[in-house]
Amino acid sequence: MKNKVPFVVKCAMVFVVLFVLFALFGQWLSPYEFRETSLLNRLKPPGTEGYILGTDARGRDVLVRLAVGAQITLIVALVGTIIGAVLGSLLGILAAARRGWTENVIVAAIDVQASLPIIIVALFVLAMFDNSFTLFLLLIGLTGWEVYARLMRGAVLSAKEHGYVTAVRALGASPWRIYLGHILPNVISVALVQFTVNLPLTILLETALSFLGLGVQSPLTSLGQIMSEGRDRLLTAWWLTLFPGAIIFLLALSVSLIGDWLRDRLDPTLKAR
Fold first, then answer.
1. Residue 26: how many CB atoms within 10 A of its CB?
2. How does pLDDT run across 138-156, given as a tens digit for each residue?
3. What is the membrane topology noted in the UniProt record heading this document (predicted)?
4. Among 21, 101, 211, 224, which one is most buried in terms of CB atoms within 10 A?
């Protein structure tokens, strides 16, 4: 019974699966293209014939735009979080392995990154340079790497003191074999747990920047951009912000619940309690 998945976590998993399916195949639920406009069908409310979730100010089908927006949000969140996880984990392992000036430089970079307000930095970079999708994706990816680096450095330093590492080193194993074959498999769960923690934060960061007009740009769209387009019509066209806002809220909540459950199962410090 101890390993039974809680009902709330099951619901979260179901929603995440449905969200992924909607992002991948939701465009086929509507006969319209996501950029197709119809000035004769502007601001149609949900339930209008031919428009299940209504239309926006340009007569575009909200359902298909939500599907495309969910797809872009999913890509940005996953790729951005993976970039930060890989970069931070590699730097953390390098700091723990090399020590000396290498560790000092990486730790200093971690402290600098942790002290920077990421929203302000993102606003500055995206406002100063040409806001391309690639730049936006890289900027999202560089968010939170310092957390992975700090955690992986501590985990590797702790693992190096364990008896099995000392025994393998005494047998003449090379450093590559020690780290890849023995240390990394025992510390990778730390990065996996942090990945589930950072993923909803990345989703909210992408949403915030797109809502402010500094994220995903036309002709692409994202859930945050769809919300931004409807913010001036909260009373007359409430569906333009309610639907994407509800999806973002439920997605971030679901991923957070799954992340907390995985942390309880994978984090060795919690298992020991």
1. 20
2. 888 888 899 999 999 988 8
3. Multi-pass membrane protein
4. 224
